[in-house]
């Protein structure tokens, strides 16, 4: 394949030849007999984008779910309408719920909104499910109640904490087909993802391997997850890459410190980095203390760092930690943060520039389905720091368009390294329909014309005229 007259990232206008899945040459090149040619018309040719924090199964399940939280649903009446309008007659899966709608309703309160079909409503944190009576009755007829199902006088409240595994097993759910989702992500220029679900193990690894083999999953995939993942055959065979061991902290139920420290040491003994979920100040303090006690290895990282003080940033930098950031949460949730978060912490929300100045290496992840999977929306939010309502949070934390792009060009195997377009490199590429100076003003997925993984087109919009 020959890509002709592309604005090659950090190199300028040139032709790019791809052979055997890699960049073979860059320069003024003549097409060879029978060689496929893509006319770039001066469009920017970038390394393919990598989402460093995504939940593929949950994002696919979102297709069959009903959005039940802000900004679409903001009060009890809106939730009642949304549930009543949902198609189907069986189980109903609601997502994105936030307590600002109507608190944390129990089964009886949900019955008043929807009683005739089983309802499971997921809190937007991903850590709690709210069940109506029909759902409770169905689930408890199939399996014994888990420890995370809240008890109340005479029975259960319907509030289920950390219950994903139990729900999956009880409802006999299997990982979903990723075909449609993979193509949607390809249209955004995404050539690779790191699935950060903490429970990833042999089942998810086998599923990813099967989806890759069938052509359903077009992108390269790195799997973070359990300690046991290091022994999974599909990972050992290279079908999917082994990612960090994932420790998911929750402020209201932090693990025993010595048990969490043992987890870090066990991962390090596997020569694996550890990724620790931190969305509160308490969680970040706990995580940093863990790394200070257990020591760090190359690649250890904090996921989110949603609230980070100057002191905590300094401690993270001293440990050599990386940070996976989600700039789009300022755009998507910022107005709610301004209400829910103490004013003295507003300047510490989802910091970017302060992390860079401290010497921390950053990568970008969507956390989809808990945020938008579109990396271009995240880049735009990193630059503007503007909420959906027009407020600016942490103006001094903004990145340039180029800095925002580099969040998604970081190598998943080494966050300190930026992937590039050079002879010998894997041909994972994103071609835009305009030059970078035009694209940087919009930062929109609409500019993506072609996405290439290993020299194969996985998204083909090249028949569209250049923008």
Description of the structure:
It is globular and about 80 Å long. The strands form four sheets. Strands 1, 2, 3, 4, 5, 22, 23 and 24 form an eight-stranded mixed β-sheet that branches. The protein has an eight-stranded parallel β-sheet with strand order 6-13-14-15-16-17-18-19. A six-stranded mixed β-sheet has the order 7-8-9-10-12-11. It is α/β, with parallel strands linked by helices and 467 residues long. The two termini are 23 Å apart. α3 (107-111) links the parallel β8 and β9. The protein has helices at 56-61, 76-85, 107-111, 133-142, 164-170, 179-186, 202-214, 233-236, 257-269, 281-294, 310-319, 328-340, 353-357, 375-384, 401-406, 436-442, and strands at residues 2-8, 12-19, 22-27, 37-39, 44-47, 49-54, 66-67, 92-97, 119-123, 128-131, 149-152, 155-161, 190-195, 220-225, 241-248, 274-278, 301-304, 322-325, 362-364, 410-411, 414-418, 429-432, 448-453, 456-460. α9 packs across α10, α10 (281-294) runs parallel beside α11 and α12 (328-340) crosses α14 (375-384).
